[in-house]
Structures are given as C-alpha cells and as structure tokens.
UniProtKB/TrEMBL annotation:
Lineage: Eukaryota, Fungi, Dikarya, Ascomycota, Pezizomycotina
InterPro entries, A to Z: SKP1/BTB/POZ_sf (IPR011333)
Gene3D superfamilies from the UniProt entry: Potassium Channel Kv1.1, Chain A (3.30.710.10)
Domain of life per record: Eukaryota
Protein name: BTB domain-containing protein
C-alpha cells in the first residue's frame, strides 16, 4: 500500500486519492461594475470642470477648445482606451501616465499613451515568462504531473457512516470487487478542498479531538459540500455545531457571495433564521439568475430566489412606469407644463440608465433590486421657475414647487414587502 499523506487509521484498508485538490470555491464575481449609461459623465459638467481646471492652471489652454463627444460614438480602440481606469501609478521605471482620463486627451496623446502602455506590458510579460522558465527548471517534475493527496481510512468506519462508501464497497462495483478480493482498495476523489475532506474523514473516524476549534465560513461551507456528497450529513451536523457557535451570525446585507455561503450553511444545518436572512440578501442583491456555483442547494430553492428577485424588480419598475404614464396622461402634475416637464425628465433619466420599459425585460441581467433603488434616488430633477406676484414687486420668478416636482411618488413605490424565505417550505425539518 502506498504511503499516505494523512493517516486516519493506521490499519485502514482504504486509500482515498484526491486529485485536483483545492480548486476555486464558489467563483462568484462581487462588485462587478455595471456597464451602462450612468457611467458616462455629463458633457455639461465635464466642460464646466475643464473650465475651472484651466482657470486654476491644472489644464493647459489647448483643452478649452477640445471637442467632447460621448464615449459611445468612438471606435472600439478609442472606446477601450477611454473606459480604462487610470490609476496614475506604474511603479518605479514605468512609463509616465497622465492623471487625466483618456477621454480628455487628443488623438495623438491617446495613441502615445496606448503605445507606451503596450510596450511596458510586453516588457513585464517577458520578465514573467523568463521567471516562469527558471522556476520550472528548478522545480523539475513538480510542475509536470498533478499532485495527488492520499488519505488512509478505515473501511468499517466509512461504511458505517456513509451510504456512498457502503454502496461503493459492497454493491459489486469495481472498487468493491477489488476490496472483497484483496482486502484493500484505492478510491479516487476529485476537486475537493484538502482540509475539508480531512475534517470530514476525521469526523467519520471519531477523531473530534483533532479538529480545529473554529473555522471560517468558507471552510465550513466546503465541509458541508463534502459531507453532502458522501452522505454523512448527520455526523457532520453533530460534530460541527461548535464551529457555528463561533462564527459571526450576522448575515451580510450587501455581500452576495457571503450570503450565498450562509444560505448553503443554513440549508445543510437546518437553520431557518440564517436561511431566511440569506435568502433575503440574495433576492435584493442578485444581479442575475442565481447560479449553483458548485453548491448542492436544492433546485426549488434556487428557482424561488430567482422568481422573487424578478418579481421585486418588476414591481419596483412597474411603479416607475406607472408614474411616467400618469405624467403623460396629465393625471399627475399641477399643470400642463408641470406634467410635460416631469414626463420628459423622467423619460430622459430612464434612457440615461438604460431602463426604458421597452428595453427592460426579465430576467433583468446585471441589475439588482438594491442597485435600481439607488439609481432612482439619483434621478436628476428638473428645475424651472414660475412668475408670481409678491407683496413688494409686481412679478417675480420663483422656483416651481409642487408635490410631483421632486419625484416623491417614485420613492413611494419601493415598499419592499419581501421578508425572506421559510426553510420549512423546502426541506423537512427535524
């Protein structure tokens, strides 16, 4: 029998060979920026800022006559350059990078900046390739074959705790036939976290005293995934309770990936409160249909979260579209001019953020309920003045004020009645 990396039982008959250990766990992109028209700087504000910068001596006079065009009208090369975020920091030896965004540079300056950046990146890549070649030569065969982590385990413990191993070793499968004939067998496993699998095997072999006192949320979720696959949920739920007690029980309201991990932990450990809070966060913060991402969350739960997310977004935006139609029909607004101006302003805001009713359709990709609430709060209000009589002057112009002039009715539509999902509706509780 080959030499194992971890020995759960010195007399164990089973070697569990783990290939492709420690893969990326729940590869969920957090904080992905929305590519929409809200990122485009207002032309008027940009020109005003440029004028102030020229007056202060920050910009040269040549920028005063610079033509400013929307980023969407540029060709692909210019669009890529204009959308890049300029940090202004390249490190020692890097090319000088102007603090100005690319959209404010002339064609010649923009081309020069791109050329310098590309040359510097090629230089860096060349140095990395040389370093990689040297590292590969030094490490020899380590980079050639994928490393395999081996665990020596007891067949009796595995079959007593896990229906998976009981079926594998007793139901006429290839591993079972070899085990019955030779008394030992090598079992393959793939894509598990090394520590998570070790902790599960420790629990199966009643080595609770060797477990760490606490683990973080991600490791706990990994352990739950391994336990669910090998059907040792009851044993792990009993042994891992102290870990849960030492975790921060507060489910985050704005971190999607962490809420997803809490949802899975709530499902595995049958924790209704955690499940409810996590599902509420996922409904509010989800930017698209929730992908499984390697977590064995039951499909009915995933489908219900996706459906409630779409429903919440649609109810929010339906109210906005209803107010827009009321402005158009004249049901809202204190006068014809008032309703006409507000209708135009609301329509322009919707177009600017890519939220026109004709374009905004389920499943609303790259849009979350929370994001849309913030967008509505940023809607630009129109300002206009009405002639009024005064005590001292015959007429004067005062800023128009009425209930509808501040889009108060749009805020009234964000009555989010969702409270989260009940775990007992999906899983039979003990």
């Amino acid at each position: 029998m080959e030499s194992p990396d971890y020995i759960l039982d010195p007399e164990g008959e089973i070697i569990i060979a783990l290939k492709f250990a420690n893969p990326v766990f729940v590869p969920c992109e957090e904080g992905r920026p929305h590519k929409d028209n809200s990122e485009v700087v207002s032309k008027e504000l940009l020109q005003r800022w440029m004028a102030m910068a020229i007056d202060a001596g920050i910009l040269e006079e040549k920028y005063k006559k610079l033509t400013i065009s929307p980023l969407g009208d540029e060709d692909e090369d210019d669009k890529e350059a204009a959308s890049e975020r300029e940090s202004g920091i390249w490190g020692i030896g890097g090319p000088p990078v102007d603090i100005l965004p690319s959209s404010l540079l002339t064609e010649v300056e923009r081309a020069a900046r791109r050329s310098a950046r590309q040359a510097w990146q090629k230089l860096l890549l060349g140095e990395e390739d040389e370093a990689g070649t040297e590292t590969g030569t030094e490490t020899g065969t380590e980079t050639g074959a994928e490393a395999v982590v081996c665990f020596q385990a007891s067949a009796k413990h595995l079959m007593a705790a896990s229906t998976y191993f009981r079926a594998l070793l007793t139901c006429g499968m290839e591993e079972g036939i070899q085990f019955q004939r030779e008394g030992t067998v090598r079992v393959s496993a793939e894509y598990w976290d090394e520590e998570a699998l070790l902790y599960v095997l420790m629990i199966i072999h009643c080595l609770h005293h060797e477990l760490p006192e606490k683990v973080d949320l991600e490791m706990l979720a990994k352990v739950c995934v391994v336990a669910d696959y090998y059907d040792v949920g009851d044993a792990v739920r009993f042994a891992a309770r102290p870990w849960i007690a030492k975790l921060d029980p507060q489910v985050p309201e704005d971190r999607y990936r962490e809420a997803l991990l809490w949802l899975w932990v709530g499902v595995f450990f049958r924790m209704p409160g955690v499940f409810k809070a996590a599902s509420l966060t996922l409904i509010k913060e989800g930017k698209e249909d929730m992908p499984p991402l390697g977590l064995p969350i039951p499909k009915p739960i995933v489908d219900e979260i996706n459906a409630r997310r779409v429903k919440a977004i649609w109810e929010l935006m339906s109210h906005v579209y209803g107010v827009q139609n009321d402005y158009l029909s004249g049901e809202r607004g204190c006068s014809f001019e008032c309703s006409a101006i507000l209708y135009g302003a609301l329509t322009k805001n919707l177009c600017m953020y890519g939220l026109r009713e004709s374009d905004f359709r389920p499943p609303f990709p790259h849009r979350s309920y929370t994001y849309l609430v913030h967008v509505i709060d940023r809607f630009r209000l129109p300002r206009w003045y009405d002639p009024r009589s005064s005590k001292y002057l015959c007429w004067q112009y005062c800023e128009h004020e009425c209930h509808d002039a501040h889009f108060w009715e749009l805020r009234a539509g964000r009555c989010f009645e969702e409270e989260g999902m009940e775990l007992k509706e999906f899983i039979e509780m003990d």
